[in-house]
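re the bet — no i am not wrong, look at it urself. input seq straight from the record:
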Amino acid sequence: MYALLSLATCTTSAWAQSPDSLEARIQKVMARPEFARSNFGIEFYDLETNKVVYALNAEKLFVPASTTKLLTEGTVLAKLGPDYRYHTRLYRTGPIDKHGTLKGNLILVASGDPNLSNRIQPDGTLAFMDDDHSYNGPALPGDPLAVIKDFAAQVSAKGIRKIEGRVYVDASLMPDGEHEGGTGVTLSSIIVNDNILDLTAKAGEKVGDPVAFGVSPQTSYFHFINALTTGPANSKLLFDAMDPAERADGSWEITFSGNVPQGTGLHTLAYQIPSPTQFATAVLREALQARGIEIKPKKSSAVSKDFSSFQHFYIPENQVAEHISSPLSEEIKITLKVSQNLHAAMGPYFLGLLVAKDVKDPLSAGFRIEHTFLTDAKLDLTGASQGDGAGGDWADLFSPEFMCHYLAYWKTRPDFPILFNALPILGKDGTLAKIQKDNPGAGHVFAKTGTFAAEDKLNSRLMLNGKGLAGYVQTKSGKTLAFAAYVNHTSMASDPDNAQKIAGQALGEIAAAAYDAPLP
């Protein structure tokens, strides 16, 4: 630890030696025994003087975790613009006769809109919970199928009463593909309710009692068998889902077993939908049928793999429904405030698809767009490495120095307020809501968090490979500082809350220290 601290580049002035100085406050945090074998990389950068206020290992590469999203979302914002909106449309492939019968198929063309959900508020803003449901947090109130049901209402308003063809979801913009590393959610251009089901479980009164089990949204596409039981109050919470088994009608059956301790309240769990396209097709069919629209083919399992023969029908005359998303400025807020992995993971793909127009290899094309953006900003890319959009790839590495220069560049851009207002606020909201709530710096640190951990099977512990915090501090004296703080390789007990309780609080304390510490 002493060798590590000797690399600090702060001066040895009377200010630096003061027990209340920024350096002294930071050293006090790093000297805690839990960080004895950890590596810290930190920089604070004055945006008015363009001078480094404090630096420690700032030129070295660190595992950044979800602070990576700052680059992804910044590039998406810069290239698509804050007013960009996704247009998701439904088309018919045949005429509608006088009886309201559609003599053809109904096709929803996926646009990549990540918020076909109940996030949308009446004023067009997007709502979020500080603990996002993709990370087993509580679901937002409201109907997660509200957009899908509105599609059905629009189709009905067109006078369609019967569909003689099939109902399809054309996700050829980006078919169901890989699973996002942090949450396991499937990447796709059709995203309904963040491609998850929200499950709830509440223990019974007595040991051995059945567990009350809930699913949202409700759909006949999934059938859950509840084999969960109530355990003693001191037992461990355990959810175990069997692999889905396909039923004859094309729906899926999943059995849940496990243990829910007595008296522990309502537990929430995210279930990752295996095929977003099939799921979206099923719930769209159900919404149409609920509107009294008859669909002649009874099975919903048919999926067209090649929609090229249908694309000539995608013209205004054949459009029967449309959903226009909230502006990208709202989506950026969702992704950064709650660290929404699926949304961020889609970022490089959308850059490739929507900016580079590359449908063959959108991921590589997207990163070329980002590379050009960062190069044009005159940033030294030897301090950056990136393998995905969300921050869960082993190639993701950044130096605090690079990140501070990136943040300084953003402060010069006209769209800076959009990015700034999307950042979590220390002690107030998003992934920083529970960090340093009583610190004087709460409400004055605006920063992206990051967590990247793995199971240490050898020692039955958790290895926190990377914990990060990067953004801005508005100091008590009126300065604005860009900062990046990383701690890598911290061993801790396997409590899922420890990453926040130990490293998250420590980095929050380091960031908040700059709020009222004397600065040069």
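see?? Residues 119 and 127 are 5 Å apart (CA to CA). told u. also The radius of gyration is 25 Å. so pay up
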